[in-house]
Design a protein that fits this description.
single chain, Beta-Lactamase, five-stranded antiparallel beta sheet, 5 strands, globular
């Protein structure tokens, strides 16, 4: 079972809009992470053009993975630990769709770079991380109980 560890919400050019993590994350500059993800994705797109504006979707490193989603001018990178279920990927994709619709008055194709109201996004993302963690733990617990009952 994989667990969502961290979310980076970025503008299409790589600027960080909001970030949320399950624990403290002080050893890395979140702005650099979002910029580098955009740079790597742009580089791969230019070096290996496939013509449809495709982005890097997944990066794997050890037991962790980074899944990148795009919706309009927003991109979201989700860092997972462990095996990621299709349901977890869909939850994050659906959540980005929600953010794109709900916060379109703040972030659109003509966003001027203002961060005055980003605290709303930050707060929303932290709540989402908490809800998804509870859902993953609950699913894992239910699976554990089912396995115990089957073994008895």
């Amino acid at each position: 079972m994989g667990f969502l560890q961290e979310l980076f919400l970025m503008y299409s050019d790589g600027r960080l809009l909001a970030h949320s993590a399950m624990g403290p994350r002080t050893n890395i500059d979140k702005d650099i992470v979002s910029s580098m993800l955009a740079a790597v994705s742009d580089f791969v797109g230019e070096a290996f053009p496939i013509g449809d504006g495709a982005l890097i979707e997944r990066l794997y490193f050890g037991k962790q993975s980074l899944h990148v989603y795009s919706n309009g001018p927003m991109r979201m990178a989700a860092r997972f630990y462990g095996e990621v279920t299709p349901n977890a990927r869909h939850e994050v994709r659906d959540y980005l769709q929600f953010l794109s619709e709900h916060y379109s008055h703040i972030i659109d194709d003509n966003w001027n770079g203002s961060t005055d109201r980003m605290w709303e996004l930050q707060e929303d993302m932290h709540k989402f991380l908490g809800r998804l963690l509870i859902a993953c733990v609950w699913t894992d617990l239910e699976g554990f109980k089912a396995a115990q009952a089957q073994a008895a």
